[in-house]
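Please fill in the sequence for the structure shown.

STRUCTURE ENCODING:
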């Protein structure tokens, strides 16, 4: 999947989870941090791909990306598995606890979840592609959905641009529309 699809998928997943609980207790600082963490989580697994958007914006991108990519076992390896998800979850927990003293108004538990939801959405979305995802590493089998490989999507091709991405946007719009009252009440509390 391309980066844009991952961004939208991560945000849609976050929206779905956030809306399943009362929004009013979330502070603005938490909401902003959660969104940032969610978007980072949404592209984090591609840290193993030297050409990924994760690296493109950094000056030393090429070399650094290659080193990290190799140590994670190449594209769609460790960072695209449940073990990787746990590892990133641990690092994320450690980092957030380290940063908490400088951002006391942020609910780091929620920010942690936002990152994890973003990362999980990445693995789910990549499972729809022909390549599949090695969910159960160290068992070296790549899983995909549907199980029949030829029914899956090729990254960056028409099906992704014209079916998957629009579908995600429809789901996001539907979530917004069906929770409009709650969302506008949430936004209003920051106006005053
Ligand atoms: Zn990926």
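FILLED IN BY: designer on duty
SEQUENCE:
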């Amino acid at each position: 999947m391309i980066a844009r699809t991952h961004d939208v998928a991560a945000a849609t997943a976050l929206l779905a989870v956030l809306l399943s609980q009362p929004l009013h207790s979330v502070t603005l600082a938490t909401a902003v941090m959660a969104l940032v963490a969610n978007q980072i989580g949404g592209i984090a697994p591609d840290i193993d791909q030297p050409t990924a958007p994760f690296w493109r914006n950094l000056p030393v991108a090429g070399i650094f990306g290659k080193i990290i990519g190799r140590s994670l076992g190449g594209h769609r390896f460790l960072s695209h598995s449940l073990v990787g998800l746990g590892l990133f979850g641990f690092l994320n927990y450690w980092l957030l606890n380290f940063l908490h003293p400088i951002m006391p108004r942020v609910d780091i538990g929620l920010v942690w979840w936002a990152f994890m939801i973003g990362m999980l959405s990445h693995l789910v979305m990549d499972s729809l592609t022909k390549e599949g995802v090695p969910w159960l590493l160290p068992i070296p089998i790549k899983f995909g959905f549907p199980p029949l490989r030829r029914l899956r999507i090729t990254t960056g091709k028409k099906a992704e641009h014209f079916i998957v991405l629009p579908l995600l946007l429809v789901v996001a719009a539907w979530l917004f529309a069906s929770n409009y009252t709650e969302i506008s009440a949430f936004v209003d509390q920051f106006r005053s």
